[in-house]
Amino acid sequence: MTRMDDTDREIIGLLRTDARLPVAALAARLRIARGTVQNRLRRLEEEGVIVGYTVRLRPDSEPHRIRAWMSIAVEGNAAPEVIRLLRGEPAVDALHTTNGRWDILAELRADSLEAFDRALGRIRLTPGIANTETSLLLSTYKA
């Protein structure tokens, strides 16, 4: 496991807010040398702490997109295999393991109700899934 200090966490925090911040801007905001930021980013990437950079969209930027949470109960110890299989499902945006009644929470996205219905059908046929419960996301108030 990688050991991170406060500077590493500050770099990651700034990148979470804006993954496109140039190294020079990160260095200026943190009041450290540009080379220090570059070395830390390289180390965090090589050690697998940072696995990629992404774009976050405002929820209302895709107003016709269907979004939902699916709670998934798995049979026995099937969670790793279910996760592996669901990673290949185009409608699955993210997967989260949880404790409590449900084993996995899946973030789902689809372009239409028909596409969403087809995705639900495919997901529910995944070997190892015992039960699901899906909630459509209607509005988002804080992003």
UniProtKB/TrEMBL annotation:
Q: Which residues form the HTH asnC-type domain?
A: 4-90
What are the protein's UniProt keywords?
Answer: DNA-binding, Transcription, Transcription regulation
Against Pfam families, the record matches this protein to: AsnC_trans_reg (PF01037), HTH_24 (PF13412)
Query: Which PANTHER family does the annotation name?
Result: HTH-TYPE TRANSCRIPTIONAL REGULATOR LRPC (PTHR30154:SF53), LEUCINE-RESPONSIVE REGULATORY PROTEIN (PTHR30154)
What's the superkingdom here? Bacteria
Q: What is this protein called?
A: DNA-binding Lrp family transcriptional regulator
**Record GO terms (molecular function):** DNA binding
InterPro entries, A to Z: AsnC-type_HTH_dom, Dimeric_a/b-barrel, Tscrpt_reg_AsnC-like, Tscrpt_reg_AsnC/Lrp_C, WH-like_DNA-bd_sf, WH_DNA-bd_sf
Keyword Metal-binding set for record: no
Q: Which Gene3D superfamilies match?
A: 3.30.70.920, Winged helix-like DNA-binding domain superfamily/Winged helix DNA-binding domain (1.10.10.10)
